[in-house]
Amino acid sequence: MKASIKLFYLSILLASLSACTTVSIDEMRWQETDIDLSQDSIVILGRHHSPEYVTEPDLVSCIGRRLESGMLGLKVIPEHEFVNLLYPWFEPRTAPLTMDKFVKILDEPMIRDELEKHRVRYMIWVEGATETVNQIGSMSCAIGPGGGGCFGFGSWENQSEYEASIWDFENTREAGRISTDAQGTSYMPAIVIPIPIIARVQSNACDGMGSQLSAFFAPEA
Q: For 17-163, where are the alpha helices, taking DSSP H only?
């Protein structure tokens, strides 16, 4: 009876838990944008200039999808397609990480021709990562003649920090920057079986960044 009561109260506790995420967004704009959704395209690239510093490719793809859904008709060239198209100029070791270096490689006829051919109007560099910053709790699991199970409780905090630099290809200058900071706590209670309650930190950071980029390019929307 006592075990049933404990399980009842623990079930109430689990039902009351929910993983939540807070997102903050900052925008800096240095010039107005001008894009033709029927013809122009945008490229979104992640910073991969060292093995220890890599922006997640799935985050870059997520922002691209979010931007396309927020600006109907816009074409976002996938990162891998663009890197292969201009090989080796946008490989991790050779990619232009500053506007000055980008302007210099435009002297290469092949690069300028390909950018004009695909009507690349803006390039967006995304820099940052999602990390686990705090983890507490413990869990133990055992198997016996009557079966097995786990008991315990753990939680961890994830933090996403990303910054998007928006490069204007036509005017060869930086048009603005958008930064996103998302934080959330996930839980892993276990009563016989672990029940993960995950905070969608990176996903919410993607949604926030994609929505803000849509507003950056089409403020009237």
A: 57-70, 79-85, 99-105, 109-117
